[in-house]
Amino acid sequence: AQSVTQLDSQVPVFEEAPVELRCNYSSSVSVYLFWYVQYPNQGLQLLLKYLSGSTLVKGINGFEAEFNKSQTSFHLRKPSVHISDTAEYFCAVSVSFNTDKLIFGTGTRLQVFP
Amino acid sequence: EPEVTQTPSHQVTQMGQEVILRCVPISNHLYFYWYRQILGQKVEFLVSFYNNEISEKSEIFDDQFSVERPDGSNFTLKIRSTKLEDSAMYFCASRKGAIPNSPLHFGNGTRLTVT
Q: What residues of A are in contact with residue B91 (Cβ under 8 Å)?
């Protein structure tokens, strides 16, 4: 069975600092990987996804993530965060065949301070 | 940009009562989903729906749950007899095509509180 681990439940950071939100997954088969963001009182919005090809994927709002198959990781990074990046970030995986459900991590609350 | 719309934003109900959560997916989307998030826990898959039938459901989606697309635009989740542990944020989602290239669009959620 697949699972997703987000080790950091909260990440406080000052504005304009870099940030990395960690995500590790376990799966015995190929997966697709996603990061979603949830702003207060809103739904989940897709930030970026890895399907195949280049392991470095770029998303919206200046975020990027790197797929590392050997470490089964898909960490999310941003070189300089803004106050408006304060939100909950969810890593998710989808098995590449036979099912289209997403398996989510527990989320990481990114809090950006001025 | 088209959105997935969920109503109501907050529903309070008493234990044992039936509740219907409503969703209007994006109009040209073909695949529909319900997820839920118990406070402080993971977002969990409940059910997927395609071509007017359930294509996959999780262990959570037992006989107390049902889904329906009654009129070609709405997509509803019914909980027949609510339990305290059904209290959660319920998210509807839709996608236009098959995975993986078709992104999943989520609604803002309905917070269900069972008292």
A: 43-44
Residue A52 pLDDT level (bands cut at 50, 70, 90): confident
Backbone torsion region of residue A72, taken as left when φ is above 0, otherwise alpha when ψ lies between -120 and 50, otherwise beta: left
Token digits of residue A87:
């939100």
What is the radius of gyration, based on Cα positions, of chain A? 14
CA distance A58 to B94: 23
HEC profile of chain A: CCEEECCCCEEEEECCCCEEECCEEECCCCEEEEEEEECCCCCEEEEEEECCCCCEEECHHHCEEEEECCCCEEEEEECCCCHHHCEEEEEEEEECCCCCCCEECCCEEEEEEC
Count of all residues that appear for chain B in the document: 115
Residue A6 burial class via C-beta count within 10 angstroms: exposed 0-12, middle 13-18, buried 19 and up: buried
Is pLDDT at A12 greater than 90 in this prediction?
yes
Which residue positions in chain B have pLDDT lower than 50?
none
Query: Do A11 and A112 contact (CB within 8 A), yes or no?
Result: no
Name residue, tokens 């995986």.
Answer: A93
Q: Do A44 and B100 touch (CB under 8 A)?
A: no
Choose among A43, A94, A104: nearest Cβ to B108. A43
